[in-house]
Amino acid sequence: MDYANNAAWLIMPLMAIAILISIWRAERGHTLFIRRVPGVDAIGEIVGRAVELGRPILFSVGLGGIDITTLQAITVIGHVAKLAAQFRTRVIVPVVDAMAIPVIEEVEREAYASQNAGEAFDPDDIRFLSGEQFAYAAGVVGIMHRERVGANFFFGNFAAESLVMAENGQVVGAAQIAATPDSNQIPFFLATCDYTIIGEEYYATTALLSEDPVLRGSLVGQDFGKLLLLILIVLGVAQMAAWGPENPLSTFMTSPDNFVEKLNAVLLHLFGRGGA
Amino acid sequence: MESQGPPPGLWQEWFAAHVFAPIERRPFFWLALLLTVVVYFGLLAGLQQLGSAARRRLTVVCTFIAGLFYLFAFFIPEPINLVKGYEQPLGSFLLAVGGFTIGLGVINLVTVHGKVLLRAQAGWHNSLAFFAGFLGMAVFGIWSMYLPQEDGATSLPLAQAAYRFLFEGLLTPLQATTFALLGFFIVSAAYRAFRIRTVEAGLMTVVAFLVMLGQVPLGQMLTNGIEPTSFLAGLRLENITNWLLTSPNAAATRGILFGAATGGFALSLRVWLSLERGSYFGKEF
After folding, report:
1. Per DSSP, what are the bridge partners of residue A175?
2. Taking a C-beta distance cutoff of 8 angstroms, is the pair A225, A15 a contact?
3. Has residue B4 got a pLDDT over 70?
4. Distance between CA atoms of residues B221 and A254, nearest Å
5. Does A106 lie at the interface with B, CB-CB under 8 angstroms?
6. FRET pair for B72, CA 20 to 30 Å: which of A49, B148, B170, B259?
7. Which residue among B84, B105, B285 sits closest to A98, beta carbon to beta carbon?
8. Which residues of B touch A229 (CB under 8 A)?
9. Do B258 and A142 touch (CB under 8 A)?
């Protein structure tokens, strides 16, 4: 899609408004209910198990570069590193994209420093392994076995290598949490990890780890977005049943002429020139 | 709207003619190159001088402008969209900048493995293998690039033969081997997943069994007795499998995707408006 159609013009601004209003309400002190996610609650427990065993923690951010999914994972690295730093435990982060190295290094360094454990931080624990999927997986598996990691965190976008890594985590006896918005890898993680954070729960992790009104408000705002999508799905199903694929809602939503274009046409008609 | 011809861009022609035009005269080319290097390192030095707060403010401004650019490029149609023409060149620029980060990766690898090797730590032979592979690939790869290509040559020069051996004889089979391990791991993961300990696990096992049976000829043979045109055709195993995959499974998957998409949208909005929390964003949560 080169340009936004009517569906994008309708849904995206409404969702953005719902999220911003929820954030505003949360900042004004409104109490917002958010259900707990067992996988998020278990992060401290999993770190604790690695600490008890005296083994390092491995945190994989998957195959993504510096994108939204990886940024979320990096924020969680900060939290995990803070918990680990309290007990002088190492957090090893193997990456597939070298661009992530300085970002993760800064986050980990700050996390250790905030717990007065700066000396426990080793920059060599943030390792670029390879840009190739299976070379990366083999590298991660090698670290798991050589370092005998006590806990594995898999946060981010994964592909077929997810099972190779998580199964080897089982072999070394590591406690494991996986979190991914990618529906294809969820079954593999469910079968191999102690806890799995799926779909939207992935993006809710930071809100669940904190009481920050911006994060919690944003999470509640998302629900209004999903409500809007649900209403559109119900309307779409009803219209599809009544009129078939050429129903008015589908035609309107997928129309390539959005309302800015129509506005421009009106301007052209009235003044002889468009908005340009 | 599908664009007819190249998308529009404000002052695009002027930029193409005056800024991004090839410099024909040699002295001007070197002068422009020198100027670019001076400006680049000047900017870099300037950024280094900035304090932490100023750097974060700069990041906030850059993020907002970049988000605004893509917002305009996507939402505003032709002919009033005046930034769409810069979308592709900007993408190429980002790709080129991203390419430089491979240097970061090489430095990281050499540092980590170099230390292990120099201190003769446990697993030093792995680090030695890294240096052998890295240098071998680099030397033979670059060397073979500079060899003249001879059509119909029956024997390969040493550099090309060595490079081909390293790439096709080692790297590709090793990657294929790691991929092939998946077959074994799927069995062990399935064994754990299909242990019936709860009602949900039992349901999943039954459904998985039906889906697997419906995918193989032997399973399909079991319900061959039901005529494909009869009213009981829905009970044929391949039809049950198809229904399980395209109805309940697809519905659940789409539900997850909708949730993930709204979550990704909210996070993108927070990053764009610098509302995101976390040490990297300068606001602890």
Report:
1. A151
2. yes
3. no
4. 43
5. yes
6. B259
7. B105
8. 258, 262
9. no
Q: Do B260 and A203 touch (CB under 8 A)?
A: yes
Give the other-Cβ count within 10 Å of B243's Cβ.
13
- Number of residues assigned to chain B: 285
For the residues B69-76, what does the mean pLDDT come to?
A: 90
Q: DSSP characters for B139-164?
A: HHHHHHHTSPP-TT-SS--HHHHHHH
Is residue B210 within 8 A of residue B240, CB to CB? The reply is yes
The DSSP secondary structure of B271-285, one letter per residue, reads HHTT---BGGGTB--
Q: For residue A268, what are the contacts with CB-CB under 8 A and spacing of at least 6?
A: A274
Task: Tell me the CB-side half-sphere exposure of residue B97, using CA atoms within 13 A.
Answer: 9
Mutation for A interface: B95, B172, B178, most A CBs within 10 A: B178
B55 or A170, which is more confident? A170
Q: Is residue A3 less than 8 Å (CB to CB) from chain B?
A: yes
Is the distance from CB of A56 to CB of A190 less than 8 angstroms?
no
Q: Which residue has the tokens 């013009």?
A: A9
Cα-Cα-Cα-Cα dihedral of B133, B139, B145, B151, to 10°? -80
A159 touches chain B (CB under 8 A): no
Q: What percent of chain B has pLDDT over 90?
A: 41
State the pTM of this model: 0.87
Which residues, in sequence order, are bridge partners of residue A92? A58
CB atoms within 10 A of CB A121: 22
Percent of chain A surpassing pLDDT 90: 73
Cα A61 to Cα A74, A168, A199, B182: the distances in Å are 8, 17, 16, 20
Structure tokens at B95: 């790709």
Token pair recorded at residue A192: 């191999």
Residue type, A162: S
Cα separations in angstroms, A257 against A168, A188, A189, B15: 52, 42, 43, 30
CA distances from A225 to A23, A149, A258, A259, B178 (A): 14, 40, 21, 21, 41
For the segment B79-96, the average pLDDT, to the nearest whole number, is: 85
Contact call for A131 and B285, based on CB within 8 A: no
Measured between beta carbons, the chain B residues lying within 8 angstroms of A183 are: 253, 256-257, 260
Q: By the 8 A CB rule, do A216 and A207 touch?
A: yes
